[in-house]
Amino acid sequence: MTATDTQPFEANIIQHGPVQPTPSTVPGGLDGGRALKSAGHVIVDSLVAHGVERTYVVPGESFLDVLDGLHGSDIDTVVCRHEGGAAYMAEADGKMNQRPGVAMVTRGPGAANAHVGLHTAWQDSTPMLLFVGLIPFAHRDREAFQEFDIKAWFDTGAKRVMVLDHAERASEIVAEAMFASMSGRPGPVVVGLPEDIIRQQVDPALHPTIPVATGGMSTPDAEALAAALANSSKPLFVTGGNDWSQEAAHQLTEWLEKHHIPAAAEWRTQGTVSFDSPSYVGPIGYGRPRPTYDLLEETDLLVFVGTVPGDVITDGFVCRQDWNKKNFLVTIDPSLRGRSGPVSRQIVAKPDAFVRDLVEIDLPMKEEWKAWTARMRAEQTSFASLPPVTPCEGPARMDTLMANLVPRLPEDAMVTFGAGEHTNWAHRYFPTRRYASMISARNGSMGYSIPSAIAASLASPQRRVVTIAGDGEFLMNGQELATAAQYGATPLIIVMDNQEYGTIRTHQERHYPSRVSGTQLKNPDFGLMAQAFGGFGVTVTQDKDVPAALDAALQAIDQDGVFALIHLIVEQRVKAY
């Protein structure tokens, strides 16, 4: 159930608390100086000062004063249909920028619905702020309507949980939350806003932004890395995380290409080193090609930048566990949270700071590096080669769709997706040519595809945004198509429909063969659903119809300015034995 606050019909007579109209601005102030403002309005002013361009909200009476502050502000307010969708949009926004994405929800049920986005931000190291309206301060600990303990709920899944109990600290709380979210390993921060506190009048002076330390290579770090590279015959860089700029990504790529050193991408973070770069040798993670799995054991020097070798990269803490191997870990997180396997040296730096110092290291080019990189690049190029463009007879196929889609994509196209086997086509074929051209949930969270595509389209309306969803994953937040239509987001949505939770079915077949249970689905016509929401929609069952459907969808986006959805019904696996 969507968790917008509910009130009795006679809301103008019966109130939950002593609600009184409070002007947002009051003349006078200390010594008769500048006019006072409500704490809620000061929060909005502070977000503007920190560069926030939009916030994703499901409204609630608990933070009405903040909503009022957003009215007429420089921040675009995107009203979502479910708190989970709003939280995912904010999380995706944080992945595309070096500042937090912002979501606002109401107390109790609203906060519960938003929790999935926090878990995604936590495991994906994404800067994100979740503002949660709370019951009045005066009602606390009395089991008031929708009361919950915000710190008990979120303390283990957020970097900080803060509650504005003193109105005069409103701007300070925003500055602290921004700093906490971006400093060290990025992550989510939760800010609780008691509804009576945010209406109180305060001095509107804004707290300064708090600078975030970026670290960098010390002289001993640089000497150690240069020596390790000089002694290596098969070095490999692995890029990951959400804390890059495009400039740093470009500089790293140039440096790698200059020295003929290969780079792989952490699962679902492709694009930091361009898909087309002669140094790019593929993704490492679930659904990876076999060669990149073998790379982890074959390389004699691994340099992780912006990430660490965790569960997914090491195939469940199995691969690359020999402590005689050399691993350099470049991360701003001194705790190395999530690390698995050997650590030869940690360099405490954010990616931009590390790359700034790395490009000052000039090494003699080794022929063995050149051969090593060329071999792995050839294997990646073969793996990513598109299938035939010409359709086959019979049911629609994702191979045919990708073969026809990729040549139609501009250089700066981006892709988003959630979790499921349908994501393998994006990993394999989608040409990610710049940082943040692949936006996904590395915690395996479903329902991420549509919200992330909306956030990406709103943030970069000039870019072609494609999202690939499975049928089970799509319906978890498919109602956010209404949000896309309302705000003019124009993603191309591919829904691969095999009428099952395919990943779980695959595990089921492996561990409980011939006993299909709890994984089968019966779906509506998603093409008609897209039309009902105000976009273009088409359902395709035959492979021969794929190219025409794709052309019609892209034309609707470009000429009509609407989102477009292709419902691709692919061949079904046997459902019973």
Protein architecture, described:
This protein is of the alpha/beta class. The chain has three domains: 178 residues, Thiamin diphosphate (ThDP)-binding fold, Pyr/PP domains (Rossmann fold); 165 residues, TPP-binding domain (Rossmann fold); 172 residues, Rossmann fold. Helices cover 34% and strands 16% of the residues. It is built from 19 helices and 21 strands. The strands form four sheets. The chain has a six-stranded parallel beta sheet with strand order 4-3-5-6-8-7, with helices on both faces. A six-stranded parallel beta sheet has the order 12-11-10-13-14-15, sandwiched between helices. Helix 13 links the parallel strand 16 and strand 17. Helix 1 packs across helix 2, helix 3 packs across helix 14 and helix 8 runs parallel beside helix 10. The chain is globular. It starts with 24 loop residues before the first strand and ends in an 8-residue tail after the last strand. The N terminus is likely disordered.
Task: Give structural attributes.
single chain, 577 residues, alpha/beta, Rossmann fold, 3 domains, six-stranded parallel β-sheet, 21 strands, globular, disordered N terminus
